[in-house]
């Protein structure tokens, strides 16, 4: 690396490794961003994009590898901010209880003095009309009163705004996920202007069109590694999708077309505005596909909550749920593995409401062998398990029940290939025994395992694919609004 | 016109205060006078200060169960040391504020539930107060008594004080940088942290400010009662929580309103008077206090519904 | 003439039988007075919690409601002074009793609590000249009545050094609290000759002694019916001897008449003393007879009784 | 691995250790002569804190913010009403018990109705409820002390095999509570709700039903304690529950139940209740006054919570 390159470098991350428990979020990734360029970053869900953003931003310390700002190796939020790095995070990170101007105060520590409020207001107003000319946001209102799109716009404006030093690098992690096409276009135009004026932007998006049209260089990540890094001009939509997609393994052959029998075991209208219904038949594996955050989890929650009472215990629960977000709605962290496994089927394991230790242990043993939970003792705390193994326990929890329908909320996050294959096997055998699975997944491989797939976009069903129609191309095409012609 | 959620949050407290006041005026026209207003509201002044203190703690998503005993303790200090040897008195009160800041640090660093820590502290403050004044007594320092019994022209001191408290804490909590950051911690701690601020420091600051206002509450209380006892303000713990909630504040999320809190304190005080104007049978006087608490808090449900409807428009 | 005058009772606490008896007496006597047209109204107000601040607010409301006199049983002798002063300034007659206030503009109907404490030791000194170990049960910490009775007991012990206080607990004037506290300290105490108390706690102490199988000491009682009845049972069974002393809840009615007399233009001294109500071995049965089941031995005052008290003190 | 498991059950050890230390310190003061008497008295009075503590523990296990401040008023009302109904007749003992239980059920239903229907935070809902209940108690009996039936009162104050009967009842209740917590479906459910009520819902647990039952259970135990305490101390008094407000919370917290919910601990309540009685006895024995006693109590609570530590961050 020569001197000039160093001078032009705004940020460089080299050989970065980050692991969350068993999940290798970053596995030796390199990312260099130079002055005056817009780098597009793409990759499948869970590829590690947000993680590398957090590393560059100083919020995460990598276990291996170096971060340098302008050629100078440094660490931490303060260092990165001092070098002009600003970040718009994937999940909204404004304080909802504060006004727009007050949020600017939180983000810009150099907004001091008695007149800060006026200054902040002017700053945000100026920046908003620069980026989104014609916007109608009231900058004195509280953030929670704004729509999702307005909040996104505000956060972007605050990040591009400058009090003393102009930001040198602005990271946009899926900034257009809640903006309509017009606003997204305005933002992309502004990004180009900002880059022309010498600034840098790291743009993360699943909307390949804007990546291709806005960035100078595109970096593709997969499983925590950078698998391609080329000028944007060398990519087409198709080649980009190919670079992102995981290896297509020989499979799909064992999927035998199922014969629908009888009435639907489930039929639900999800959105009052559209009349498309989500239906499922006995023994079917129904997939929910589409980009993350387009209403699949909400659909599953709605189906589940409307079927399960909150006051009376149900003797025979109709549905079981497998959580994807383990920390939020899956594991009971104070409990043993066994208790976590049995919690949904206690009725069957007890006589006169008293849990039979023997029967519980027996079921635990059976499932430990069946799905190979790697632990010496089912009485160990659930947190002693690796993430993948915790996920297996959540699976077993649902399968132990007698429920006819199992809802799965992208449950394979952080599960390794071997385990996945085991779980797929179990799914197939349970389905042929008559159970119905409704499976939200962000992984194409898994979607291809389904008998029928609903593709979601903007909280509604955008397409229904059956049998041989379930291909990556078709799913992608249905996922992108007005998007990419594949 | 679209109302902001902050404004809606103030509407119901202000409206219920107005309704209550109208009812009191109707039942007792002589309350509608300079002395009348002062009599109705002067004991709300220390409650308002304590409510502001509780509100500061709640703005970082914590809760203080020792507010009542702490105010009792500061009242005892005011009636004894602050009166007889002001320098030592000020030192003790400053130490008490520092203790509050330290509590904030401990609660944050050790990730302890504020409820238990402050429950423990309520015994400690209570014990210190009993040691200080084993039986009721002491005397208000002259200047405190002078302030609390001042007779400003036109508007009684109780109203003047309430307005000053509301205005100054509004400036401090809603307008100043520090206030913004503290409320930011309640709203989204992670993003405040990501912007490079120290959460420990901010929590300590919130607690210290709470301690400061609680000290003021103790001083103001002694100014009205002229002396103190170890149990003088025990009910302030629950009053202050109810006052914050009544004024549109919430237990979590950094959604607080100093003006609302002061209105809440005034409303609670007035609710008590309202009951005594109602001539309820002595058997049910205590129960009526519970009932009015329920009615007023049930308004919150109504408020939330209204706010949601406003948002969904 | 007081036919158009309105009197209010401001009461800080209603949570024990003494206070309930006090309110009942007030109700009974004032209702008659209102019916006879002696006064226009006599309303009772009790605060939800035993708190000086709440009572101060209550008194300020009573001022606003235009009462001509306020009779106060105060949560604190000093913390209400601000509100009491406001009442006086508004031309309202303030009469305090039981829990009296120090504000000079108010009248005080005081029981000499210190003398009450001292009288217990004097009785014991006569009964057991050789002296012995005492257990003291105190009232509610931080309240002045507790401090005064305690001071009287201490003074008595100083005068009679053959007695020694070997243990002291807070019984909060409640049987169950006293029982709990005594039971806890009893195992570590030597032989106890007598228990000195503040009222409302004697029966609890007796139960604690019985439960611990300790010889029953002389327990000074506090006029509650359960205490008197227990004493009577012991007296019948084994000739148990003691005395009982407390302030009569009916003192509220005396305070009422005093207020009425002041409104009537009578000249009344600011400080009146009422005797405490003492029950001895001889008049135990008579007093037990006249005490309501579960209540407190009581003396209610008529206008004439009140005039006598006022006159005697002149 | 077993070390990891022991970590979870360790907090209650301290309450027992503290109780033992204080016991020794008190007995030592008298050269050992008070050992038996002190132990009996401690068991007797700890029994009442244990009974209300167990109820409060169930509620606190439900997770942050769950607490029942109506315990004292419930005790007062159930004691007052039950003794009034029994009216000193031995034949009415069971009817009185039934009345007490019904009082508990009614108050529990009222509490949860306020919490659920009016969305009032539990801390304020149960406090408001307690004011109303207290007024009801005043209205029913105006504070007159009615004696308990002879048989009941002699049962409450005597011993079996040298152990106070009330302590045996507390033992029975604790055993049932322990079985409920450790062995029953209900116990699993409240623990799950306390750890994450959303996850519990997604695991198929009827969250509202379970919370409702828990508030009723707490009120019923408080009512039962009121019934026993009134029988034990020779009559109900209007302020008889006052001590048990902070006590019921303190024994739960000191006993090692997580305030953040999900993790409860029956043995710890025994340790803490014994300790709370003994510490007052010790300070009385050593002649400390009320002020020092309060300060020490507070410092001990903070010390125990500091030692037990906050809920450790989970991955
Ligand atoms: N705090 C965390 N704890 C555990 N695992 C985590 C954490 N953060 C991220 N991961 C895991 O690390 C991997 C990379 O996640 P990351 O958020 O970087 O993906 P991404 O490429 O941004 O995906 P998306 O397109 O869905 O935003 C994922 O498997 C994720 O589950
Ligand atoms: N906190 C812990 N306490 C005790 N044991 C632990 C702890 N964390 C992990 N272990 C043990 O170490 C083993 C290895 O953990 P690791 O997270 O690397 O699993 P892994 O082999 O990657 O599993 P998987 O492939 O299913 O994710 C686990 O099986 C577990 O038994
Ligand atoms: O007011 C006091 C009363 O509450 C207590 O019970 O007995 C003594 C009285 O002075
Ligand atoms: Mg792994
Ligand atoms: Mg991401």
UniProtKB/TrEMBL annotation, chain A:
Kindly indicate whether the keyword Acyltransferase belongs to this entry. Answer: no
Give a Pfam family name.
ABC_tran
Q: Which GO terms describe its molecular function?
A: ATP binding
Top-level taxon of origin: Bacteria
Looking up Gene3D superfamilies in the UniProt record yields: P-loop containing nucleotide triphosphate hydrolases
UniProt xrefs under InterPro entries: AAA+_ATPase (IPR003593), ABC_carbohydrate_import_ATPase (IPR050107), ABC_transporter-like_ATP-bd (IPR003439), ABC_transporter-like_CS (IPR017871), P-loop_NTPase (IPR027417)
SUPFAM superfamilies (UniProt xref):
P-loop containing nucleoside triphosphate hydrolases
| UniProt entry keywords in alphabetical sequence | ATP-binding, Membrane, Nucleotide-binding, Repeat, Sugar transport, Transport
- According to the entry, every stretch annotated as the ABC transporter domain falls at 5-248, 248-483
- Protein family (similarity comment): Belongs to the ABC transporter superfamily.
The name this protein goes by in its record = Ribose transport system ATP-binding protein
Record organism: Pseudorhizobium tarimense
Provide the organism lineage as a comma list.
Bacteria, Pseudomonadati, Pseudomonadota, Alphaproteobacteria, Hyphomicrobiales
Automatic annotation (TrEMBL), chain B:
Q: Which PANTHER family match?
A: ABC TRANSPORTER PERMEASE PROTEIN YPHD-RELATED, ABC TRANSPORTER PERMEASE PROTEIN YPHD-RELATED-RELATED
* Membrane topology value: Multi-pass membrane protein
Q: Which domain of life is it from?
A: Bacteria
Kindly list the residue ranges recorded as spanning the membrane. 7-27, 39-58, 88-107, 114-133, 153-173, 200-221, 233-252, 259-278, 284-303
Q: Which CDD domains match?
A: TM_PBP1_transp_AraH_like (cd06579)
User: Does Chaperone appear among the keywords?
Assistant: no
Q: What is this protein called?
A: Ribose transport system permease protein
Localisation: Cell membrane
Query: Which keywords accompany this UniProt record?
Result: Cell inner membrane, Cell membrane, Membrane, Transmembrane, Transmembrane helix, Transport
The keyword Metal-binding belongs to this UniProt entry's keyword annotation = no
UniProtKB/TrEMBL annotation, chain D:
Record keyword Transmembrane helix present: yes
Could you tell me the keywords of this UniProt record? Cell membrane, Membrane, Transmembrane, Transmembrane helix
Please give the start and end residues of each transmembrane region: 12-31, 43-62, 91-113, 120-139, 159-181, 212-232, 244-262, 269-288, 294-314
Localization recorded for this chain is: Cell membrane
CDD domains to which the protein is assigned, alphabetical: TM_PBP1_transp_AraH_like (cd06579)
Name of a matching Pfam family = BPD_transp_2
- What's the domain of life for this entry? Bacteria
Matches recorded under InterPro entries: ABC_transp_permease
User: Is Transmembrane one of the keywords?
Assistant: yes
Question: Where does the UniProt entry say this protein principally localizes?
Answer: membrane
**Membrane topology type:** Multi-pass membrane protein
What is the protein's name according to its record? Ribose transport system permease protein
